[in-house]
Write a structure and sequence with these properties.
With about 170 residues, the chain is α/β, with parallel strands linked by helices. The protein has helices at about 15-25, 60-65, 85-95, 120-125, 135-145, 150-170, and strands at about 5, 30-35, 45-50, 75-80, 105-115. The chain has two domains: about 5-115 and about 150-170, Rossmann fold, CATH 3.40.50; about 115-150, no CATH class. Helix 1 (about 15-25) packs across helix 6 and helix 4 (about 120-125) runs antiparallel to helix 5. The longest helix has 18 residues, at about 150-170. The chain binds flavin mononucleotide.
Length: about 170
């Protein structure tokens, strides 16, 4: 079975996950490529497809690519600003999954929190004092919590997820 990891990552969070997950795939019949770098092999059997969430989902180009990938098993992974919220992760997964071609199959998804640029926190600060302070304070607390992610524990969980997927497939 040939494994292909394809990822997109604007600030490096998902890239970190992608590299750890790639290393956890056993054997030599595997490859990893950054989506923006062009050559996207279509001859693998299993695709790990990773993305950072921006404005609610992943890039349109990646969704388009996924929709053109036929007769494959696809495993999604990604990072997003919000941490430890399985319900939110499931919504993100379902939105992305909807783009997968009918003759391909999504067999798993792993999401975790990723740090955000300081400009996001500054924007929250600017929003304070306009009647939504409780909500904004919660968003700032989440921002601060995200600062260390993906951390070693996230990477270990990602590796364990890959190992579980491989066991299921073999
Ligand atoms: C402009 C921008 C928009 C974002 N939009 C969302 C969002 O809609 N939902 C979310 O959970 N996280 C959002 N985030 C946080 C990113 O998903 C998070 O930082 C992620 O780890 C980025 O991954 P990457 O570096 O691999 O692209 C956003 C971050 C930025 C900078």
């Amino acid at each position: 079975m040939k494994y292909q990891v394809i990822y997109t990552s604007s600030t490096g969070n998902t890239e970190k996950m992608a590299k750890a997950m790639f290393a956890a795939i056993p054997g030599l019949d595997k490859d990893i490529v950054r989506f923006e770098e062009g050559m996207l092999p279509e001859d693998a059997d299993i695709y790990f497809i990773g993305f950072g969430i921006h404005k609610g989902t992943c890039s349109m180009q990646l969704l388009d690519f996924m929709s053109e990938l036929h007769h494959k098993k696809i495993i999604l992974f990604g990072t997003c600003g919000l941490g430890s919220d399985e319900e939110y992760y499931k919504c993100l997964e379902d939105d992305v999954k909807a783009w997968i071609a009918d003759d391909s199959e999504c067999i798993g998804c792993f999401m975790c929190q990723g740090k955000m640029p300081i400009s996001v926190r500054n924007k929250y600060m600017d929003m304070m004092g306009q009647g939504n302070d409780e909500k904004i304070e919660k968003m700032i607390r989440n921002f601060d919590k995200a600062m260390t992610h993906p951390d070693e524990s996230d990477l270990r969980n990602a590796v364990a997820f890959v190992e579980g997927m491989i066991r299921k497939l073999e």
